[in-house]
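In response to reviewer comment 3 from the previous cycle, which asked for concrete evidence that the modeling workflow produces usable outputs, we include below a single protein chain processed end to end. The sequence was submitted unchanged, and the resulting structure tokens are shown without manual editing.
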Amino acid sequence: MDGSPPQSPIQRLGLAVPLIQAPMAGLSTPELAAAVSNRGALGSIAVGASTVREAHAMIRDLHSRTDRPFNVNLFVHESAIADAEREAAWLEWLAPVFGEYGSEPPAKLRPIYKSFAEDREMLSMLLELAPPVVSFHFGLPPAEAIAAFRERGTLLLATATSPEEARAIEAGGLDAIVAQGFEAGGHRGMFDPAAPDDELGTLALTRQLVSESTLPVIAAGGIMDGSGIAAALDLGAVAAQLGTAFVPCPESAADQGYRAALAGPASRHTTMTSLISGRPARCLANRFTALESKRGALRPPDYPIAYDAGKALNAVAKMRGEYGFGAQWAGQGAPLARAMPAADLVDLLARELRDCRPVS
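The workflow returned the following structure tokens.
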């Protein structure tokens, strides 16, 4: 031991830009992640919505495109509790909307994603491939999984939406905390979605975690340009994580309706909804989020059971040319999105950051 302070994730990974491209399930592709990593930032893919075979193929594909570090993200949600009565009521409520597109809702719903907490096959595959960085959303995996990753030298990150969750991440022996502010697009990373949410913004949450935690903090939520990255660094974060900024990139898997909505007036009207998946998530205001006013006291099924219905509705609507039932996740900074190749975006963000924080 030489007594020197531990290296930050940026130092350990040798990143030239203190930037992480958020691991957006269904949107972040190996092509996108590689383009980001090859420009000196950290590209990410999300495999929480993938089978083990699909995840293996994605990681192999990404590895073939870059020799730089990259991040693989996993969902660690509590297992859904099936409730036949609640699920039937949800399908009955959605039936008229399906009917608008000449279809009927599924006869039965199922939990379409498996939590990493109970997926031994996914763990074995990841330990075999040993990606440079692994990150967790919705919670933490078992201690033995964390220990196994650490033995392989994998850098471990996890999302926190509160100081309490950050303390759990620190106690769990991970390497850094992703501070997800309420402005962030996509799913809230809350460990318990039924618990009270103080809805801390990125600025307040990042500064609290920097002040209270011994772990490095990565700021996430509403950050879209170099000025935003600079602000995160000024708060004491070691890096910023950007998701919505990368959705318009040609390498992302966003469909044409999603891209059009993000480029239009809807970008200025994001809203938090649990209708689509069963968990709170920030989305562009669209046909699906508009159903909130008609829901009353009806509760969606648990995540990800509700997502089975949401995806089915989106599929039938898209067949009729309606894209407004998609999971068009976006943060509050969405109006600042710029459509360009991912490598060009990373270069632009780096230049903007240097303009805000010139090297002395």
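The first helix runs from residue 9 to 13. We consider this sufficient to address the reviewer's concern, and the full set will be provided in the supplementary archive.
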